[in-house]
Amino acid sequence: MNVRARAVLAVLALLASGCGGQERPTFGFGRRATADEITAWDIDVRPDGVGLPPGSGVPSQGAAIYAHKCAACHGATGTEGPFDRLVGREPRQGFPFGRDPRLVKTVGNYWPFATTLYDYVNRAMPLDAPGSLTPDDVYSLVAFLLWRNEIIADGAVMNAQTLPRVVMPARDRFVPDK
Amino acid sequence: MPESCDPVPRAATEASLRASMTDARISRRALLTAAVGALGAQAAARAGLAGRFAPQAPTVPSDPTKVPGAPTSELGQRSPFERPRRIPIGNNQGTSLTPLQDLCGIVTPADLHFERHHAGIPAIDPHRYKLLIHGMVERPTVFDLEALWRFPSVSRLHFLECSGNGTPSYRNIRPDLSPQLVDGLTSSSEWTGVALATLFREVGVKPGATWFLAEGEDAAVMARSIPMSKAWDDGLLAYGQNGEALRPEQGYPARLVLPGWEGNANVKWIRRLEIADRPFQTREETSKYTDPLANDTARQFSFVMDAKSIITFPAYPVVLPGKGWWEISGISWSGRGRITRVDVSTDGGRHWAPAELQPPALPKCHTRFRYLWNWDGQETVLMSRAVDETAYVQPTLDQLRNARGLGTSYHFNHIRAWRVHRDGSVVFGLEG
Lengths: 178, 432
Known about the structure:
heterodimer; A: mainly alpha; two-stranded antiparallel ribbon; 5% strand; B: 432 residues; alpha+beta; Immunoglobulin-like; five-stranded antiparallel sheet; 7 helices; 24 strands; globular
């Protein structure tokens, strides 16, 4: 490609970008975020696994942590409360939550993404010590809850590779509002 | 003199509200117990209109023109005769309800604005406050408060409403509910801040960005995915409310205000905005704040609060002292724009007539309506029905139940009703 053709293409690219070669003016307020600042706060975990840290856990490890740090609020087996019920697959058929106000939403029957469980436990639990769990703790608890909900086997290892591949029973039940 | 600010005993109030807001824990017995307690209180609370004033009258001179008055002060206080109070429910994951029946006009005093927290109210030092914007941007940037204040500011009046507001009017309806207990999770304020569009232009959003994560600095690190289109449209990063800095329980020092959208998306104590090309699927947009439908699916990202209205006078626990002219008054609002009409029925929905809309009728803001009513002293039912600028009409309870089913947990915008008895007492719901 000759120089003239390159120049024409460059102008076309600028026009296509909508700014006609002019940088949109900014105020220049604020300062550039450092990589460390972003890393410290960028805690979200997405369904595709982006954001999951190194580490791993299995249900049996999670059971011990659960009994110590979670059972007081969610019950010995995740069904007793007094706070959110975490375990339960009823009803096995269908998704009749709109029709039946007595149905209790749980991780097993309502949550569409397993990664959300990591994200939420990591950011907000336990209620009296949020943000205190290590990645291994969180993977273990997530593994325990998925196993209790009969979604993974009791020996399954949850880590950054396996967790995004877990398919939740309610995965295809959610539709965006129009 | 009866209690005016607590229409039902606190214990009964909390029990019933907890019951209605957390279906999982409700037992039939608990609900009945709460209802019986509250009905007893209703009998004791036959109030008359004077019931709104504080029960213990402060000492005042018999003739205020004959004694010098009090001096000026640093901070004004309400008259000791006026005691509007929120009703707080639950722990640090709880709510408190705005006393709609005690307010006039459209502005909610900041200290009476409803609350809904997911892990309590964080204490944030404004000197150390930072807002991080990163992700699909040209310039990942940190703003402190001074930087935010330097941007061109915007002030607008908007309502904020919890998407679960009105739960007690949908299932297990009880007669002894005040406007505060029915719909106290809505408030209106003048919000001041920076347009999100201004901030996003400043950091340079990359092509293909369609969503952003909004994340708070509370102990829940509360997070929701928001479509970029809302930022380009009318979203605000607010630091002011009704002429002063945000209250701590309203997100001090800065929060999102997404006009017309369900309360929890208006993330408080905002500390991070991450731009992306898809939603993040946080717990608050999957496990919570989704709407199961009759066809075995659940609606997600149902942000807009549809048109709604409620009569705030006369309403439980008011007792009208006699027939004759009364001004029915209430609030209406829509997340889709301006309220263009409110119809009032004074005969249980057989006939409807347009109410006066008290200017200003602002978009996505409480709008006061008034209707002069000549009560003949007979038992009847009062109702209000809002219409917004998109011609959306507030639905009936049956219409909403048919569309959503009984199991839904959010967006209860159906028509509310108040039954007026011949003795002047007013109770909530058609079946009163």
